[in-house]
Amino acid sequence: MASIVGAIGVPHNPNFPELVMRQGLACDTTRAYQKGAAEFAALKPDAVLIFTTDHLNTFFFENLPILAIGAADEFSGPNDEVPQVSHQRVPSMASFARHLHEANVAAGFDLSLVQEFEVDHSIIVPMHFLNPRFRVPVIPIFISTHFGPRPTSHRCFALGQSIREAVQRWPQPLRVVVVGSGSFSFDVHGHLSPPGKLVGVPDPAWVNRVGEHLKRNAIADLINEATPERFRRAGNVSGEILNWIAMLGTIDGQKLAWLQLELEFGNSYAVWR
Amino acid sequence: MSIISVNHLCRDLTRNSALREAFLQDPAGELAKYPHKFTEIERNALLAGDVGTLYQMGVNAYLMGYLARYGLFGLSGEIYSARVRASAETEKR
Predict the structure, then answer these.
(1) For residue A61, which residues of chain B lie inside 8 Å, CB to CB?
(2) pLDDT tops 90 at residue B13
């Protein structure tokens, strides 16, 4: 039987590969991703499930699923601009993804099925750092979190729980690591960015508060506070925390082992094992 | 015709360097040739770099900001920021 052996939450800023290459170990981001990568390797995963948000690169307004799962034996990316990362193929597991799709639709989560696709930085950047050379197969689960109507935080947590149950019904002995991809407070090209700037962190207090909830394992409080009103104040990509909340729903008894906030970018890094 | 045409244009401009160069040289001519059609308000707003109006009309900010990153329609980061912020202030009143 497959099992979830750990969960890792990380940001996916498309400029981080270039930042890490330029600044090396002098940079907090480098050290945080190195720690995440060491944790990832120690979990010895056979497969990665990543909850993420497409930035209108895989999908677009003419066809925009709220929830979707990628089911293919490989996909490629990034299909957007990620300095220092070339376009490459990523192995996946179509049969396992199809099982997750069927099980979750039967459980009431109507995931769109995506079978030929490319992905953007929201998957490639976390995997670039955590999963070197994309050795471990990756299955993407897309949640539309950047604009309304978003799925609710309660719905995303329940999706994570349903995914966990479906993983556990897969008969082969797979060690699965779940990744939550995204920021807690960040505004990209919107009116909440600082004057004269194109990006910014409008609500660092929310980042700290999320961190406190995670440290106390107060997941119900986090879910109750991750509302559309909060997202309106925390920046136009702050809904990405829904990817983390879905990831938290998959956790099967693991405890928080490491948490590091990155207030400069409205981010956090964390591991449950 | 709807705001989706502007969203298409913004995404195409992020992905296609030749299209970007063409729009930098002749924005009005390129808009006329673009396969997705625009309303008069959308066309005027684009040519004027009036991202405040486009923001209020619902153009996706993530996509639209690339117009400023690439210096299209007379925009810079500072001009873009000022217009989008002023637009949001106007909306609050």
Answers:
(1) 4, 7, 60
(2) yes
User: Which secondary structure element, helix H or strand E, spans residue A90, and what is its range?
Assistant: strand A88-91
Contacts of B51 in chain A (CB under 8 A): none
Q: Which helix (H) or strand (E) holds B56?
A: helix B51-57
Subunit contact A61:B85, Cβ cutoff 8 A: no
Domain that holds residue B56: 3-92
Mutate to test the interface with B, among A79, A198, A237 (most CBs of B within 10 A): A198
Q: At CA A59, angle to CA A243 and CA B46, rounded to 5?
A: 110
Q: What are phi and psi of A181, to 5 degrees?
A: -115, 125
pLDDT at B93: 65
| A56, A62, A198 member nearest B68 (Cβ) | A198
Chain A residues with CB under 8 Å of B4 CB are 61-62
How far apart are the CA of A187 and the nearest CA of chain B, in angstroms?
A: 9
**Distance separating alpha carbons of residues A75 and A57, to the nearest angstrom:** 14
d(CA B43, CA B68): 17
Q: Which domains does chain A have, with CATH numbers?
A: 3-272 (3.40.830.10)
Report CB contact under 8 Å: A189, B65: yes
- How many CB pairs (< 8 A) connect A and B? 57
Contact residues, chain A, for B66 at CB < 8 Å: 189
Over residues B68-79, the mean pLDDT reads 98
Do the beta carbons of residue A239 and residue A142 sit within 8 Å? Answer: no
Mean pLDDT of B8-27: 97
How confident is the model over A167-177, as pLDDT tens digits? Answer: 999 999 999 99
Q: What is the C-alpha separation between A125 and A11, in angstroms, rounded?
A: 8
Provide mean pLDDT across the span A73-87.
Answer: 96
Q: Is the pLDDT of residue B92 over 80?
A: no
pLDDT of B91 strictly over 80: no
In degrees and rounded to multiples of 5, residue A152 shows phi and psi of -75, 160
**Is the whole model's pTM more than 0.90, yes or no?**
yes
Specify the number of domains making up chain B.
1
pLDDT at B1 over 70: no
